[in-house]
Amino acid sequence: MKILTHSLHASMLAMPAIFMAVFFSGCNSYQFGNPAELAFESIYIQPVTNDSFAPQAQAILSTQIRDAFIRDGRTKLVTSRESADAVLLVNLVDYKRRAAARQSVDTAVAASFNLILAVEVSLFNQNKGEYYFQERMIQKSSNAYVEDPYATPGASKTQNFLQSEYQAIPRLTRDLASRIADEVLNPWEPR
User: Fold this and answer.
1) What digits encode the pLDDT tens for the residues 82-126?
2) Is the pLDDT of residue 136 over 90?
3) What are the residue boundaries of the structural domains of the chain, listed by start?
4) CATH number for the segment(s) 42-185
5) Cα separations (Å) of 136 from 9, 41, 51, 72, 185?
6) What string of DSSP letters covers 58-98?
7) pTM of the predicted structure, to 2 decimals
8) Helices (H) and strands (E) in the chain, counts
9) How far apart are CA 116 and CA 95, in angstroms?
């Protein structure tokens, strides 16, 4: 009986020791942040150009791209092209509005729209005078709702499409800015 108690006591002490050894060996190789090394230290983000029919989206997108790079913190934003290792060029090339849902009382009138915004992104290496990548297409979509489900009783349940589009553009450009930052800051291969 004494041998059985001694064996049980030893196994109870061994289990936490084994657990701790396994736990710490797994965490030993963990590294905070992104381990990828960037090919540049500083970047200049040229103001976004707009060759699409997106209403005034270039200013919002320019600001949100800068914010995405600042939040990431792996590269330094500079204010002039000459002092940068890399230059980011973004051009809005396409903007589409499509009816996503129709009103139940009149199927010719849309209740919501699907907005699609596409950009061409290029990253230029200032030091070598060549592109890291050129004219990569990135697009994002978002919805603009014309009907207001939160309208007070007696008030109009619809809002102007321009108002709903105005509310959706910042959300659409924020998602697009995040995707552009991912494209630039994550390891990329030539496509």
Assistant:
1) 999 999 999 999 999 887 776 666 655 667 788 899 999 999 999
2) yes
3) 42-185
4) 3.30.160.150
5) 64, 21, 15, 21, 14
6) HHHHHHHHHHHHHHH-SSEE-SSSTT-SEEEEEEEEEEEEE
7) 0.73
8) 3, 6
9) 6
